[in-house]
Amino acid sequence: MRNKQILSVMLLLIGFVVNSYAQHDLKFEINRVLPFVSIQESKLNTISTLSDINPRYPSSWISEFISVEVSAYKNGEQTRVLGVSDVLNQNQKELIRQADRNREIAVVVKYIPENTLKNNKEQLLEFNVSIIPTSKATYGEDDAQLMQYFKDNYISKIDPSSFTGYDLTAIKFTITEHGQISDLQVSMPSRDPKTDEMLVAAIKSMQGWKAAEFSNGVKVSQSFVLMIGNMDNCMANLLNAQQSE
After folding, report:
1. Of the residues 132, 166, 191, the one at which a domain ends
2. Is the C or the N end of the chain the one with fewer CB within 10 Å?
3. What is the percentage of the chain residues whose pLDDT exceeds 70?
């Protein structure tokens, strides 16, 4: 009986050690940084309303539409198409689908707001929409290889105890249409400047990126962010990062 008790205690201790080790593994992610309003290229053929291209579109604010203008570049020339509501007409949908992929689509909405004021004046709502390429910028064979490479060579060298509570470090960088690294910056510094210096140097050394590419073969720059620490940090949402699909 005593031997069984000793064995149970040993198993509990082993489990505690294993769990403690797992808890001290630093969590990290390398995600795309998306423009404030964006739509995946693959979803262009399914759009019907303004909400389809801008989920943040405040339809509840509007009592009456005056006009909805969609402006986009097609083969290098700017074209504008007018509509009368948040339901896109056929010409507007075709313009969006055929728009130059590396240029923003502009939307201008003139409307009467939904409120109880006696003098309800015309208001203007404007936003630009970026098209996200079908093929994102890549390093190595796939995301799993990228994450493993970064963990083995850099994350493993960071003392986990230097990240406590809601600590979060974020480093942004851009992969240009030529596959080069640019705009490298520490957006959220860590407690240890040497850690940031090491991570910046690590990203700089990662040569051989493939640029993001649209379905028509046009390459475009794309931004990323390396995040290390507690992803529940309230500042994380400000990074506008999206995990790979």
Report:
1. 132
2. N
3. 88
Quick one: 170 and 119 in the same domain? no
Structure tokens given for 192? 């240890």
* Model pLDDT, residue 81: 98
In a shared domain, residues 142 and 231:
yes
Sign of the CA dihedral with 144 first, then 207, 190, and 149 last: positive
Average pLDDT in the chain: 86
Helix (H) or strand (E) holding 82: strand 77-83
Asked whether the beta carbons of 208 and 221 are under 8 A apart, the reply is no
Q: Which residue has the higher pLDDT, 44 or 244?
A: 44
* Structural domains counted in the chain: 2
Residue 10 inside a domain? The answer is no
CB-CB contact of 102 with 220 (8 Å): yes
Could you count the other beta carbons within 10 Å of the beta carbon of residue 33? 17
Q: Residue 200: give the domain boundaries.
A: 25-35+135-242
Q: Where are the alpha helices (DSSP H) in the chain?
A: 2-23, 50-53, 90-98, 143-153, 193-204
Among residues 198, 187, 184, the alpha carbon closest in space to that of 227 is found at 187
Q: Residue 169: its pLDDT value, please?
A: 93
Confidence of residue 104 (pLDDT cuts 50, 70, 90): very high
Q: Are 81 and 125 in contact (CB under 8 A)?
A: no
Instruction: Look at the pTM and tell me if it is higher than 0.90.
Output: no
The average pLDDT across 41-45 equals 94
Residue 85 included in any domain: yes
Same domain for 80 and 199: no
Question: For residue 188, what pLDDT band results from cuts at 50, 70 and 90?
Answer: very high
